[in-house]
Specification:
- With about 240 residues, the chain is α/β, with parallel strands linked by helices.
- It is built from eight helices and seven strands.
- It has one domain: Glycerol-3-phosphate (1)-acyltransferase.
- About 45% of the residues lie in helices and about 15% in strands.
- It is globular.
- The C terminus is likely disordered.
Length: about 240
């Protein structure tokens, strides 16, 4: 029965996404004031489908640690789920993402209308310069919170860490708090649309790293904060809880 629900979830995920993408395309001339609520509707629909069909709920801890003003929201990345939830937690986020996502039909076209920084990871220093320049522009004009995955890509639970220098460079250049975010999503949502497991995903927002540290100090503190909390979350007994965005 769970296998049937999984296939139904996948089908509805794409149908729902296509409908909202078309709606966003039609309304895109109206700007972000219309696209933002439509994006939240799309993301809320995904979470409702995951809860209703897969039994995957989520809870958010540490909301009080979110700064009132601009910040870098630096998230652990274990599954596709991680890319959806920031749009429900943060009022007006921008995103750092890999450039390949812009080639996804419909989704890629819509995403380009959001505040995003699309990076070609093969460009090395040029990508780093683009990250900093675009980060300053987006934060000044469109999105006071910028979501970034410090490891650059999804890593399974228990995989060795590899934090990239880009997040520390952005922290130094922007001079805003760096918020570590840990989670255990990989225990309930595997790579892509595989290995779903019922239960509660916990996302933990940790105390921010304030501006003023060196890049090395900030990156070290970020990695320790996130990985210590990930270890705690992934070893803790799973308890069902309602979503608390």
């Amino acid at each position: 029965m769970y296998t049937l629900r999984r296939y139904l979830f996948i089908a509805l995920f794409w149908v729902w996404g296509a409908l909202l993408a078309l709606l966003m395309i039609v309304t895109s001339p109206l700007g972000l004031r219309v696209l933002r609520p439509l994006k939240r509707l799309w993301l809320a629909g995904i979470m409702a489908l995951a809860q209703g069909l897969l039994g995957i709920r989520y809870r958010v801890l540490g909301v009080e640690n979110l700064p009132d003003g601009p910040c870098l929201f630096a998230m652990k990345h274990q599954s596709a789920w991680d890319t959806f939830v920031p749009g429900l937690i943060l009022p007006n986020p921008g995103y750092v993402m890999k450039q390949e996502l812009l080639n996804v039909p419909l989704f890629g076209w819509v995403v380009q209308r959001w505040p995003v920084i699309a990076l070609d990871r093969q460009q090395g220093r040029a990508a780093l310069r683009k990250l900093i320049a675009d980060g300053k522009a987006i934060m000044a004009d469109k999105a006071p919170q910028l979501v970034i995955f410090p490891e650059g890509t999804r890593r399974p639970v228990g995989a060795p860490t590899s934090y990239h220098i880009g997040v520390a460079a952005l922290y130094e250049a922007l001079g805003v708090p760096l918020v570590p975010v840990a989670l255990n999503s990989g225990q309930h949502w595997g790579k892509g649309f595989s290995n779903f497991a019922p239960g509660c995903i916990t996302l933990s927002i940790l105390p921010p790293i304030q501006p003023g540290l060196s890049m090395r100090e900030a990156q070290g503190q970020l990695e320790r904060s996130i990985e210590d909390e990930v270890a705690r979350l992934t070893s803790a007994p799973n308890k069902t809880a309602e979503a608390t965005p």
